[in-house]
TrEMBL record:
Record carries keyword Membrane: yes
Protein name in the entry: ABC-2 type transport system permease protein
InterPro entries reported in the protein's UniProt record: ABC-2_transporter-like
Highest classification ranks of the organism: Bacteria, Bacillati, Actinomycetota, Actinomycetes, Micrococcales
Pfam families, per database record: ABC2_membrane_6
């Protein structure tokens, strides 16, 4: 059994290595793909800048403070998209019968899925996100202490876990909604949009929903309240900034159960 496990890991490592080498083989094309992903991140920043630049504050935050929220959320989403973005096309994987090929291999389906078409070009989005976060940390008035440093370190990790869980849940959902990719994407990309903006800009019911149901505000906004020493709105008190890790663990566990239920439910592509 141990030898088989080692063999499976070696095979998976070989497949991933081959995939990555094939992507970087054509350096010009790979570089343009990475730049394209960076431009995508820049476009999202310009959209935010266009809003904040025309008003004194956005959800009670200045431009620099809003940029901190944007940077933290963007890093989290970019990492999750790099790791789990392939689950977004689960409906196509099912329709084409690719899932059946994955099921007969002695490697966990999820592990195969996220490595079979690993898109290294998505790192471009992560690069821009890190740049945006770095600028935000430099220009924002932050009182540096142990709690602040700890939050800045753990927030992107917890945020990435939350988005990975949302990607996983969106993928599992498509077992029942074979044409529901757009509906499922509302939870992932919609969550990203909410995470990049100050939560105080939302109506109170939406604040509660995106904090305690789909924890998008816990990705960046709530931790930013503690980092910046700000009081949160009624639906997102500042203490929720410490809930990112617990929320990520709980959501990850629930979505893994949902995923396993979806795999067990699958009976074949037919035909």
């Amino acid at each position: 059994m141990a030898e088989r496990t080692v063999s499976n890991r070696a095979l998976l490592k070989l497949l991933v290595s081959a995939r990555l080498r094939s992507q970087v083989a054509f350096r010009g094309s790979f570089a343009s793909d990475v730049v394209g992903q960076m431009v995508l991140g820049l476009t999202e920043f310009v959209e935010l800048y266009a809003i904040v630049n025309n008003i004194p504050s956005f959800g009670g935050m200045t431009f620099a403070q809003t940029l901190l929220v944007f940077g933290l959320a963007s890093v989290s989403f970019a990492v999750a998209d790099l790791l789990m973005g392939e689950t977004d096309s689960m409906a196509e994987t099912i329709r084409t019968g690719k899932l059946e090929v994955l099921l007969i291999r002695p490697i966990p389906v999820l592990l195969q899925l996220v490595t079979s078409d690993f898109q290294l070009r998505r790192a471009g989005r992560a690069i821009f996100a890190v740049l945006a976060l770095t600028v935000a940390l430099v220009i924002t008035d932050i009182e540096w202490n142990a709690a602040t440093i700890l939050l800045i370190i753990i927030t992107p990790v917890a945020g990435a876990m939350i988005f990975c869980a949302l990607f996983l849940g969106a993928g599992a959902m498509q077992f029942w909604l074979l044409d529901g990719r757009q509906f499922a994407s509302a939870f992932t990309y919609g969550g990203r949009y909410v995470a990049t903006m100050p939560g105080a800009a939302l109506f109170l019911p939406m604040q509660v929903f995106f904090t305690f149901v789909i924890p998008a505000t816990l990705v960046a906004y709530a931790p930013s309240l503690i980092i910046l020493g700000l009081d949160g709105p009624a639906g997102i008190p500042a203490w929720t900034g410490w809930l990112g890790v617990p929320a990520a663990l709980i959501l990850s566990g629930l979505m893994l159960l949902f995923w396993r239920s979806a795999i067990k439910k699958y009976t074949g592509a037919g035909g």
